[in-house]
Specification:
The complex is a heterodimer of chains A (208) and B (214). With 208 residues, chain A is an all-alpha fold. Helix content of chain A is 75%, strand content 0%. In chain A, α1 packs across α6 (109-121) and α5 crosses α9. Chain A is elongated and about 70 Å long. In chain B, α5 crosses α6 (113-120) and α9 packs across α10. Classes of the chains: A mainly alpha (208), B mainly alpha (214). The interface between A and B is large, with 39 and 39 residues.
Amino acid sequence: MKPTRPELPREFVAVHKRRRMIDAMAALCADQGYEATKIADIVRRAGVARKTLYDNFDGKEDLFLAAFDATVTEAMQAVESACEDTGGAWPQRIESGMAAFLRFVAEHPAAARMCLVEAMSATPAASARYDGALRQFVELLKQNTPAEADLPGTIEETLVGGVAWILNQQIRRGETERAADLLSELSEFVLSPYQHVADQQFGTARRK
Amino acid sequence: MERLPRGRHGLSPEFVARNQRERLIAGLTAVLYEVGYQRTTVSLIGQRASVSKSDFYKHFESKDDCFYAAYDVAIDRIRERVNSACAKHEAAEWGPRVRDGIVALLTLLEAEPPLAKLALVEGLRAGRGIYDRYQAAVESFVPPLQAGAPEAPGGGPVPEATGEAVVGGIASLLGRRVLAGDTEHLRELRPDVLRFALTPYLGAAEAGRIISAG
């Protein structure tokens, strides 16, 4: 019998190729920025035919947006399940959500740069996507903060914007892998507006 | 901006040059507000400023070059306005000083939508060079915020990242509002922005007191 590779299901191959193109987009964006990244670079790096790219995506921007969405979905899932798994009170949920988010960033440096640095300015559609992702995290934070805090309606929006900015800075400094070092500072920052509620509920003068 | 009289006006070449440059910067700010970065062209800027295309290139190498200059002018103006509002207080009065700085910021941006759009929205959309400027501009507000800041409400220093996160969070909120076309309501965000900025440093009760005292 001729020694051939076992044939992989067509669907598996297609998903895998799509994934490779998405990863290639993230990696190239991280290296050289969105603007300088060309279709030719992407297909070379992903090891797919140019036609395959155009069968899957309308073009460079469409691929970027797909890569952005895939990353945000994964990050969101990681954060959501960390919040749920904790089973603790809201401050613990927020802290584990933050820990999961920072871990995700540290473990996916290229994708993190694509979403937290490049997307802000890549194209108008990308910045709209960035805005939508911020909104998702704002909603998630709202679900986990105490309603009795009596704070302005925008508080979660500014907190999420602040955290995104800190990570943007961390990534631009080339310290993405050390994102988890920010855990205690960022948790304290995000929890600070609700501290008076924590004091009432848990009788703690300070969280730590 | 008024154009200069034609012909023999007896104005020095330096004065004319400076005036043209200022008009071009104002022209870019106005055109950008109306049509966005992509559709802003050297011709449109020149038309708005009543400066010929060849004179444009005496002052700037390109649209981007003019954009950078306009951006720097915009940020200087904002910083100056914020600083002078803060300067009315002694350094010891951290809360009221920061409060008045933030109120001055909101007031200026609400009064000048083209300035707000240039500084907070277009600064992110025009490529690397301008993105670096946006970044530096946001960062430049961190030291004045941190200067003379009190200890955290529960004791100990406020974490280092807090100042950056506060400034970045405010820029993000205001940028999103400006992008959504809500610039004329920015001052309504006064209690929100103040609560966000002051609470990590002062705690909820003291922050509330300073917000209602202003």
